[in-house]
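Students often ask why inverse folding is considered easier than folding. One informal answer: many sequences map to the same fold, so there is more than one right answer. In these notes we will look at a single instance of the problem. The structure comes first.
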């Protein structure tokens, strides 16, 4: 058996144990099998097992007690933020007020072709581009890249964007967010994003691309967002509609978004 750490195998064991802890199959306070037992059970070198346990410990999911063993502890920090898809635009403002933001870049550039097409801009039109990391309780959960037409971006400053949600700034300047289109998928974290979100390179992320339009149909914001799936999730309420034989699931009427002043902290759920 080699003494070298096998990163992929260490990560596989880490993910296996992490899933068991997060799902509750391994209860808080439970003692994990010792390194020799885990190594034999999973056909791994002990140093590889130790690396997997170190990853769990770095997330606060286990506690190492010298001479006693490794014990499961309940996930630390807030549970994931849950965004209501049907009520997304108003929910974003409420969420922005409940979280912090770290502004990484702020600049004006010529709109890339794909951005110009999505926002229905003229060739060569400039946009304000920003990159932000949003945090909840001091922990990063989303990496946001936004492009807005220059005419909109000039209504707020870099300092404004570092302190106020973008939708609030846009509405303050008279821009009306009337409708949006979006696509949700999955991707892997590159080095820059992984560093900003405190993840390992190659970690899975939720990917969202949204384009917001005003009542006249002009694009006012292009958002590319990457979310840590352990700290952010999307939710949609559905109802059964249609006649017999043609029943289908339909989005329910959006629920009112509670303001931060009426939302009880115990019910705020971390995830974005």
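Output (designed amino acids):
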């Amino acid at each position: 058996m080699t003494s070298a750490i096998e990163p992929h195998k260490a990560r596989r064991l880490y993910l296996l144990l992490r899933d068991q802890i997060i799902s509750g199959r391994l209860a808080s306070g439970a003692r994990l099998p010792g390194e020799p037992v885990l190594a034999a059970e999973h056909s791994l070198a002990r140093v590889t097992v130790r690396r997997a346990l170190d990853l769990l410990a770095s997330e606060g999911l286990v506690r190492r007690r010298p001479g006693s063993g490794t014990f499961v502890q309940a996930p630390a920090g807030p549970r994931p933020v849950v965004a209501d898809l049907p009520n997304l635009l108003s929910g974003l403002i409420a969420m922005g007020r409940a979280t912090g933001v770290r502004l990484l870049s702020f600049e004006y550039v010529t709109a890339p072709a794909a951005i110009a097409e999505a926002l229905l801009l003229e060739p060569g039109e400039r946009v304000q581009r920003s990159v932000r990391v949003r945090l909840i309780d001091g922990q990063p959960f989303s990496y946001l890249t936004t492009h807005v037409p220059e005419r909109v971006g000039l209504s707020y400053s870099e300092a404004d964007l570092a302190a106020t949600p973008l939708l609030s700034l846009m509405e303050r300047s008279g821009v009306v967010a009337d409708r949006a289109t979006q696509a949700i998928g999955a991707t892997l974290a590159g080095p820059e994003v992984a560093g900003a979100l405190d993840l390992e390179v190659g970690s899975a992320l939720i990917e969202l691309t949204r384009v917001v339009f005003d009542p006249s149909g002009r694009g006012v914001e292009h958002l590319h967002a990457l979310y840590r799936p352990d700290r952010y999730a999307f939710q949609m309420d559905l109802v059964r509609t249609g006649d017999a034989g043609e029943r289908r699931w339909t989005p329910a009427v959006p629920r009112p978004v509670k303001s931060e002043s009426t939302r009880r902290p115990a019910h705020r759920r971390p995830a974005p």
